[in-house]
Design brief:
It is a single chain. The chain is α/β, with parallel strands linked by helices and 420 residues long. Helices cover 46% and strands 19% of the residues. The chain has helices spanning 19-31, 45-56, 74-83, 94-97, 99-108, 119-135, 149-166, 186-198, 201-208, 227-232, 249-262, 284-301, 304-315, 326-329, 362-379, 381-387, 398-407; strands at residues 11-14, 38-42, 66-69, 86-89, 111-114, 139-141, 170-181, 235-237, 241-244, 274-281, 333-342, 351-359, 390-391, 411-416. The strands form 2 sheets. Strands 3-2-1-4-5-6-13 form a 7-stranded parallel beta sheet, sandwiched between helices. It has a 7-stranded mixed beta sheet with strand order 8-9-10-7-11-12-14. Strand 2, helix 2 (45-56) and strand 3 (66-69) form a beta-alpha-beta unit.
């Protein structure tokens, strides 16, 4: 049950000694208000104290974070949730460590943000804690990092623009990873392999089913996916180029579909909405090769000996908690493009196009997402009151979230396309 008593902290960053956690702590220190009452949290006091000392150099005049040692048992999680208005969680794999903190936040009316991409775990958390969080006005938003905030925000921006300009719903949004230069962290590699050990194939299939995260049944698509896409994984889209299967598409699609199901009334995307996501390739042959390689790779990971071999290889790239050096990540970039078609009975429907771009480290961007979303929840009282509580999505934070991201270097552009 949520308490009306003042909390000791505005936010607590859980997992601050990990790769993404340190980057998030850095952004908080550099960019968030200097009077913010916050703490870093994890299992080791010594390692947390070292993080505090390291980030102090970025802004020595601000209030430095306190240190909270927790073991992520349910009792420790409840104690931590009762101390803070909001928890930022970077502790993965989430399916292994983070269920107690979600439960604790839902029960205590504490807002919660994380950067998982673990679709089965998100599905499990929705089933268990959405109603509890809603009853206690706890806003819980998983996947508000690189997965799946860019996709969700682009789809929301396009549907909002089409509604505003044409008073129409959106029939389809097609998104494409136009550019991605990045290296995975050790935690990401460990999670990809470990999740197949934790969940059964039937659980994975249930969580990955179309519209599985949506609170209402998804619409029947009137948009036919091209035959080449169904057979070869290749799709040609005039504004986006030649596209193929994207390894990151699954969680992103599921979150966008949940947003569709949560938004009603004037904010609705429309009854026939569809979202598809791909990655850009040079030509159809390259697209087909990538599609079949990813398909075979997933089948291979389903075989335990091959999965264990991949796990061993992953640990020899980066161990969990480690990632690329700053001089390498400074050269990273990410761009997602999307085109939307209005839901109208016309041979030439109205269309809009959008772009999300960030130049810099992708994991730093994930820390930026966490910190800036936190400030929306802490400062936008009207929005939090309107949202109430529950297991929500990044796009539910709407324009205030986008405005904050633009200030710190994110490019998000959305425009109506000329009539053809």
């Amino acid at each position: 049950m949520a308490s009306s008593e003042p909390r000791q902290y505005d936010l607590v960053l859980l997992g601050a000694t990990g790769y993404t956690g340190k980057l998030c702590a850095e952004h908080i220190t550099k960019s968030l208000p200097t009077d913010l009452k916050w703490a870093v949290s994890g299992r080791s006091y010594e390692r947390l104290s070292a993080v505090v000392e390291e980030i102090k150099s970025y802004n020595p005049d601000r209030i430095q974070p306190a240190v909270e040692v927790v073991r992520l048992t349910l009792d420790d999680s409840r104690s931590l949730a009762q101390k803070s208005r909001l928890i930022l969680n970077t502790v993965g794999p989430y399916f292994r460590y983070s269920s107690p903190i979600v439960q604790a936040c839902a029960e205590n009316g504490t807002h919660y943000l994380d950067v998982t991409g673990e679709l089965p775990w998100v599905y499990e958390m929705i089933q268990k804690y959405h109603d509890v969080a809603k009853a206690n006005n706890a806003i819980i938003i998983p996947e508000i990092g690189f997965e799946s905030a860019p996709s969700d925000l682009l789809a929301w921006s396009l549907a909002t623009l089409i509604k505003k300009q044409f008073s129409l719903g959106t029939k389809e949004v097609v998104a494409s990873v136009h550019e991605m230069r990045s290296q995975p962290s050790g935690g990401t590699l460990a999670t990809i392999v470990g999740i197949l050990d934790h969940y059964s194939l039937s659980q994975l299939a249930k969580a990955s089913a179309p519209w599985a995260l949506s609170p209402v049944a998804g619409p029947r698509s009137s948009t036919q996916v091209p035959l080449a896409t169904r057979l070869l994984g290749v799709r040609k889209q005039p504004q986006l180029g030649t596209l193929t299967t994207s390894i990151t598409a699954g969680p992103n699609i599921a979150i966008v579909q949940r947003t569709w199901g949560l938004l009603t009334g004037p904010e609705s995307y429309g009854p026939n909405f569809q979202y598809h996501e791909y990655m850009r390739v040079k030509n159809s042959l390259a697209g087909a090769i990538i599609h079949f390689a990813l398909t075979l790779g997933l089948f291979a990971l389903a075989i335990p000996p091959l999965r264990w071999l991949c796990q061993y290889a992953a640990h020899n790239v980066y161990a969990p908690g480690q990632g690329a050096r700053k001089e390498i990540t400074a050269e990273e970039s990410f761009e997602l493009r999307a085109v939307a078609e209005a839901d109208e009975d016309s041979s030439k429907p109205q269309m809009a196009m959008a772009k999300f771009r960030y130049d810099g480290g992708i994991y730093y961007l994930t820390g930026v997402f966490l910190a800036e979303a936190a400030m929306v929840l802490l400062k936008e009282e009207g929005l939090t009151k309107k949202l109430g509580g529950g297991l929500l999505t990044p796009a539910m934070l709407g324009q205030p979230f986008i405005d904050r991201l633009k200030i710190v270097g994110v490019v998000l552009e959305c425009r109506v396309m000329p009539e053809q």
